[in-house]
Amino acid sequence: MPAVRRSPIPIVVACLALALAIAGCGGGDDDSTTQPTTTEAAQSEGAASQDTSTKPEVTVPDGSPSQGLEKTDLVTGSGPAAKAGDRVTVNYVGVGYDSEEEFDTSWGREPFAFTLGAGEVIAGWDEGIVGMKPGGRRELVIPAGLAYGPEGYPPAIGPNETLVFVVDLVSVD
Question: What pTM, to 2 d.p., does this model score?
Answer without folding.
Answer: 0.74
